Amino acid sequence: MSIEFHDQETDGTYVVIESLYTEADAEVIIFHAEGDREVYRRLILEGGVELSNERIELDEPIPETQLISISVQPPEGGGTYGGSRATVTVDGSRETPPSENTVRIDHQETIGTAIVVQELSTVESGQLEISSASFTPTDHYTEIELAGGETWTDELVELSQPLRDHDYLYVTLRIDGQARSQDRALVTAGVPPVEVDPNDVLPEGYEHVPADVEAGFHYPYVLYRPAVEMETERPLFVGGLNSPTTADRLDLLVALHTHAASFVRDVESLNVPVMIAGFPRTPEDGSDLVQSLAYEAVAPNRDIDEIATDAFPADSLQQIDEQTVAMIDDARRRLADERYDVTERVHMDGFSSGANFADRMALLHPDYVSTISIGGNGAFVLPLEQWEGHELRYPIGVADYETLTGREFDIDSWRDINRFIYLGREDQPEPGDRGYHGIAPWGENGRIAIEIFGKNRVTERFPTTKELYEDAGASAEFKLYEGVGHRTSGEMRTDVRAFHRNHMDAQHATFDFAFDRSHDRIAIGKPITVTGSVENLVERTATATLTLRIDGESVETTETEVAAGETADTEFTHTFDSQGEYTLRVNGTAIGDTPVEVVERSEASPGFGAVATLGGIAGASYLAWRRTGESDT
């Protein structure tokens, strides 16, 4: 145990601990070292977590200058790990300058030309930016220059352009161009935020699915349907919510919808349906048990009362993995009427706590998951029951897997899951920084986890996980990104999309198609030709299966093998035997903007076929239907 607590001056409502680290769980007691020995604050510190320059708000203010003691002891009492003492000088008469750059906004109803910022404080000069956090391209509603030392309370801020009827807003405090504090809220016009139908705030293609306890889930999810024509089968892409604490169901709605917007933007080019599970991080869930699928959140009948609130009762926070499975099943049912089929197993993506969510779902339900991309963590669940004499229980290993799931652990199914594991080279807290020791949330297994994986993400945990996964025969790719800290970069997101595309059998994700047709109007008995090119987008040889349908009836299917990165030509020819208008589609995609008109030979002008063919060639730019991006709309 180590602690640094120095003499300081405050207004009496808080103290600052310069550093504190304990390997075991501990109770920290802050109290008057003399006289009545009044206790000002008690808190529980999880073993393996380090505090650095931590401001601790007190339950009771220090009334005057005093010698203050901090005692660090086992939560159950019976001794002490150590402590420290320092003189805290209290000057309640002076105005306390802001101690940090921070901003807060509440959900609110407005007239559309101004909003209220509830709290703002600046240590340095900077800018306040108010922008849309919704699904459409970001609108900047205003930007205000701020001086250092400013404090606001319930400040009315005029906007440079009016708000939409309902919108999600970001208020961002920037210092030297970097976001130092950010908050978000639902701002509505003409109706209180709590009365807004969630689907009224979502754009076309998105559906807010409310909690359905009878179907097996206590929380909502967002379902995104891509606007596509191609009929090829595709996976459901699943993500979890990685959010700050949510005080109530309205906070959760805002967190879910804004996260869904950014998540879908990242994978939109794959043109797959997307599901975002809306599980909360309650104000009491400091260890992030729910959103990271910790033991407490997945074990049957586990007491989780300590993180429950009135808005998020204990029974709703249990077996989060099973609730996710129920959401996936429900989403599949809702997608049943789409023109494409949905694969049996899903793809998942997550970063930081979201990476734990994806990794642990894949471990607990390998029959539901085929492919995951996970970043921002160096250590993940191992397919081992023991390591060097240590029993490895969830979420380190699988010694208690059957107790948790009711099934034996299937190492072959675990190996079959495709994994892309990535990390920024700079995502490595230095000794003394907060987060240096933490592997969250490993619970009581934390010391074993540190012994196995080490403390630093990049130099210890990441290579250790890579080595142990390779030894276990995992199907996994590992990649470090230079110059990137605990965030996702553009290069990371590009590689994540390429990885998922490379592990889809879906034709729309594997190939880029371009098709032309030779005629808009043609005589009975004359052949019409559909020509096309097929570009392989993935890093392997793949077979393109193309089906020409006329008015929904299959008339010809071809298969073309295309090497990685190469392009092949393909052609269909068809002769009509009756007049009328016919819609041509290849794999569900319409060829041409209008149906082909087929007429009797007597209706065609002399040289009709030749003229039409020449016209089709000369007007290629007009007739061509070119697939760009996903080749599916």
TrEMBL record:
Residues 606-627 form the PGF-CTERM archaeal protein-sorting signal domain. It comes from the Archaea. The keyword Manganese does not apply. Keywords: Signal. It holds the Pfam family PGF-CTERM. The keyword Ribonucleoprotein does not apply. Gene3D superfamilies: alpha/beta hydrolase (3.40.50.1820), Immunoglobulins (2.60.40.10). This is PGF-CTERM archaeal protein-sorting signal domain-containing protein.
